[in-house]
Amino acid sequence: MGTKRNEMADNATTRSQVYALLTIVFRAEPSEAFLKELQGPRFSEALSELGVDLGSEYHAKTKVENCQGLAVEFTRLFLGPGQHISAHESVFAELDGGFGGHWGAQTAEVKKFIEATGMEYASDFNGLPDHISVELEFMQKLAEWELEKWANDDDENAEYCLSVQKKFIEEHLLKWVPQFCSEVIDKADQPFYREMAGITVDFLEFDRILINKSLSSSVPS
Amino acid sequence: MSKFNRRKFVKLAAVSSAAVAVGAGNTQSALAGTPILQAGGRDFSPTTRKERKAIPTACWGCVTRDAMIGYVEDGRLMKLEGHPDSIRTLGKLCAKGQAGVNQVYFPDRILYPMQRVGKRGEHKWKRISWDEALDTIAAKLKPLRDAGTPELFCYHYGRHKASQAATMYDFMAAYGTGTIGNHTSICEGSKWVGQESLWGGMYDNWDYDKTDFVLNFGSNQFEAHTNHIPTSQRLIRAMVDRGVPLYTFDVRLSNTAAKSTQWVPIKPGTDGLVMLSMINVIMNEGLFRRDHFKFMRVTADHHASTNEKIAAVKAAVARFTPEFAEQESGVPAATIKTIARGFATANSACLLTYRGAVMHYHGADQERAAMLLSAITNNLDRPGGRVMGVGAGWKAPSSKKAKVQKALHIKDGFPGEAAFPTHHVSQSLLPMIKDGRAGRPEVYWFSCHNPAYVYGDNNGIADLMKDEELMPFIITSNIVYDESSALADIILPDVTYLERWDWEDMVSANQIAEFYIRQPLVKPLGESRCQGDVWPDLAKRIGIELAFKDKEDYVRQSCNMTPGVMEAGGFEYMKKHGVWHDKNARPNYGFYEAKVDVSGNGVILDEKTGTYWNWKKAGVASEAEAKAKGYLGSKGAKDAYVAQDIGGTAYLAYPPKTKFMKSGLLDFYSDNFASKGFPAFPTYTPVPEHVKMAKDDLILTTYKIAVHTHSRTAHCKWLTEIKHDNPAWINTKTAQDRGIANGDKIKVSSSVGEMTTTAHVTEGVMPGVIAISYHLGRRHSGIYGSGNSDPISGGAASDPDAKNMWWKKHGNHPNVIVPNASDPISGAMRWMDTVVKVAKV
């Protein structure tokens, strides 16, 4: 594998890992084990370098306390009951003049996009097709597939996969996640989701640029 | 400025892998498989890219439950329309029905089970899994059942009908609790009790397709009728095509009154008196028809001749002259006479009543007066008259009942509150829990219901539900966070009616039964689950096996065992077509005239009442004992009724199919009523509070409008945009006397509280009355209903329609000042009797 190809493969690896992390953050309430890892020195340092501060209270609390507190915060922010920040594209992004409700035209577009790649929604998945965690997980899976192609010197399909990721991030994630994250930053009581929302919106913009750069640079054959 | 650069990006990714490794352990994957881009994946149309399916189903927007068609694209419900093959609706669907789309997709919808983690009403919740939720509930319910106290589980429902009710009752019987409250007493209970005491059945229908004259007391037929779409369109058609007159007696100029031939304003609580005065006119002017008298009982004597009955009716109504009625009701005597003559001389005539007439003190007796007016003009179950409703009779699977069946006596009101609470006294259920003398449930589960909003004395009910000593554990199944679910301990995310299975059975408007089903148009959103699916799951955790595995299975079994539907193709036919009726069926009128063979083994004639009954079927030990005790004195005789002897012929007449023990005669003279100290014959009993009113007191009445149900539509934006405020209607003169101008803020106070609202000064309401609709004034129920942004704003506010919400008013709820007072006959809520004082703020 050439140097350029190696770099592309490394990018795919790292991108898929960050997407995987963010998928977990927004999919459900954090587990104790997940929080333990996040509170560890390596992760804390990485967050610190990103200017992320989860606050002294967060670090002072036990994992169990943080876990319980974040479960309540997750429910309040993203689930309700009552008014909450619905983590679905169709609530935020407009298509054909409509948005602001569940299972809108955008939901169908996301579902078709994902299914058009050959993927399916897991039979035991009970969420909606355009949940933020689904879209992030989809990018993770695409990046993993891209990595496999780079590793097999299949540059054509790897670059095609990048173009698919570019299309998805530009036509979907970036159409609504920044506004969603802005709401989260505004409404979160605890630093955890506020900071994770900040990381998410920054990362998506970073990734958009990275994908575009990758696509514009040719890989030596 | 982005926080990211390449180095930080790589570092975050490196540490992420470890976090992902542990975090993924409890995180469900949403996607399966791997991308296979080179294969092209699945394909969709490059032009429309859409496939639209039409799926037959049924509405649940109100009790009418119209058959309809849902149009689905890409798994999204796009539109609802009436079902063109429905013989009930003839393809029509009302605004509430069409706005059903709003029920599914509103952003505030509850999609996951929740457990309270703060104080009740603090809005602090944690998501839990269905397993956790049902395990927690089972851990409460199983010990109660095992200890032989299943009655300490109370289930309280609002809108449950057909298979939604049947599956619930099946579970409750298998569990063993009879502590099941409903809501009929705040809806129409007094109307049903009045009818049951007479013709032994309920649910009258109005044969508008054939009628020549319609008289309406207190029904908002064109806006909010109990069988709205099937009946309203037929009445409109009769009026337009055949010139049928409609006379509406109402306190208020409703849209129905406005579309009537004549609106006749009437003082609240006097409808029955006006009907009695019409009977007075008809009897005295000889306009009655003798035909039906033979089926009537109007004195203590079951064997009176028709002439004796005519004389007795004349005597009984002699004091209710039109002039007396005018004095009490405000309706001119001349108007009463004119309309009475028109009603009596029309070839056929319908008499329609509803809440305006019956939700009063002695409201059940007002309904009896309506039946009497129909009977003396031979308009009962005749073409064009007031007929007995016909609905689908489904067969359904049944689970094994628990050996121990018990109930707390909290559903029929306080001792002495109601003599015949055959539809219960739901407004007193929670006050009785507070009282505690009849016991208190340890688990209270309410569903499709909002007790802290729909009953009177809202604030008192809410305070009770907050009290964990009095109500230790509260569960709700709901789609929206409302006034009552805010006070629950566990919220189960219910499906909307557009995501579930049911069979349906609402009354037909043309006397031919229609069988129809509801099927899911879309997959339930999130983790919402139909209660009919939850019951079998919960039952297993308690150690009970039900006869159905989920609601679809229940409906499938029902379709495949119900005569007619079964032969048509059963479940598969119903899934495809949605509706079925017997093409050979003809409207059946005059069922009481059927002649009956009374030669069967064990059938004897009871000399006192003239009733044929089967003493063997009744379980009486011997014929001698049966004759000695007689029909009325033998337990089980009611269910062994055979026929009524009328002039030597055995007629089916009016079998006692309800809880009232009676002969086969129309019991206008009611031993049941007399035995409880109520007038045996329909009469006029003034509302006690109205008699004692001070000079400046007013009467508060409430009413319904076309685009809202009582509590289940405020979150529907299409409907709330149409109607979002409910100013108090007050007559011009009444307002002037109080210095009130249109738009003024006014304070309305009663014995239980006070409210502030806005005056709508109009000639369209009786003097001395204030009228407020009761759908609005929400504390919760989504941003459209309440305008509130608490507990937090967010996603819902992203709805562009939220930003376009041009209205700032969200109404005021009158139930905070309505006491939970009951009709002492039926136990029905006296919505229209509240005495208030009104003053400019």
What can you tell me about this protein's structure?
The complex is a heterodimer of chains A (221) and B (841). Chain A is mainly alpha-helical. Chain A has one domain: Orthogonal Bundle (TorD-like), CATH 1.10.3480. Chain A contains ten helices and one strand; from the N terminus they run H-H-H-H-H-H-H-E-H-H-H. Chain A is globular and about 50 Å long. Chain B is α/β, with parallel strands linked by helices and 841 residues long. In chain B, strands 6-5-18-17-16-7-8 form a seven-stranded mixed β-sheet, with helices on one face. A six-stranded mixed beta barrel of chain B has the order 27-31-28-30-29-32. Chain B has a four-stranded parallel β-sheet with strand order 12-11-10-14. In chain B, a hairpin with a 2-residue loop joins strand 24 and strand 25. Chain B is globular. Chains A and B meet through helix 1, helix 2, helix 3, helix 5 and helix 7 of A and helix 1, strand 1, strand 6 and helix 29 of B. Strand 1 of chain A pairs antiparallel with strand 1 of chain B, so a sheet runs across the interface.
Number of helices of chain B: 29
| SS class of chain B | alpha/beta
Share of residues in helices of chain A: over 70%
Give a quick account of the main beta sheet of chain B: strands, pairing sense, barrel closure: 7 strands, mixed
Strand content of chain A is: under 5%
Number of domains of chain B: 4
What fraction strand of chain B? 15-25%
Q: Using only CA atoms, what is the Rg of chain B? A: 29 Å
Uncertain spans of chain A, ≥5 residues at pLDDT below 50?
Answer: none
* Basic shape of chain B: globular
| Average of the residue pLDDT scores of chain A | 89
Quick overview:
The complex is a heterodimer of chains A (221) and B (841). Chain A contains 10 helices and 1 strand.
Secondary structure topology:
The complex is a heterodimer of chains A (221) and B (841).
Chain A: H1 3-27, H2 32-39, H3 41-49, H4 56-60, H5 63-79, H6 89-92, H7 105-116, E1 120-121, H8 132-151, H9 155-187, H10 191-216
Helix pairs in contact in A: 1-8, 1-10, 2-5, 8-9, 9-10
Chain B: H1 6-23, E1 31-32, E2 52-58, E3 67-73, E4 76-82, H2 95-98, H3 100-105, E5 114-116, E6 125-127, H4 130-146, E7 153-157, H5 162-175, E8 180-181, H6 189-199, E9 204-206, E10 214-217, H7 221-224, H8 228-242, E11 246-250, H9 255-258, E12 262-265, H10 271-284, E13 296-297, H11 306-316, H12 322-329, H13 333-345, E14 350-353, H14 355-358, H15 363-376, E15 386-388, H16 429-435, E16 443-447, H17 451-454, H18 458-466, E17 474-478, E18 490-493, E19 502-504, E20 515-518, H19 531-542, H20 551-559, H21 565-568, H22 570-577, E21 579-580, E22 603-606, E23 611-614, H23 623-633, E24 641-646, E25 649-651, E26 666-667, H24 671-675, H25 688-691, E27 698-703, H26 717-722, E28 728-731, H27 732-737, E29 745-749, E30 754-762, E31 769-773, H28 782-786, H29 800-803, E32 835-840
Parallel strand pairs in B: 7-8, 7-16, 10-11, 10-14, 11-12, 13-26, 16-17, 17-18, 27-31, 28-30
Antiparallel strand pairs in B: 2-3, 3-4, 5-6, 5-18, 9-15, 19-20, 20-21, 22-23, 23-24, 24-25, 27-32, 28-31, 29-30, 29-32
Helix pairs in contact in B: 4-19, 5-19, 6-15, 10-12, 10-13, 10-15, 12-13, 20-22
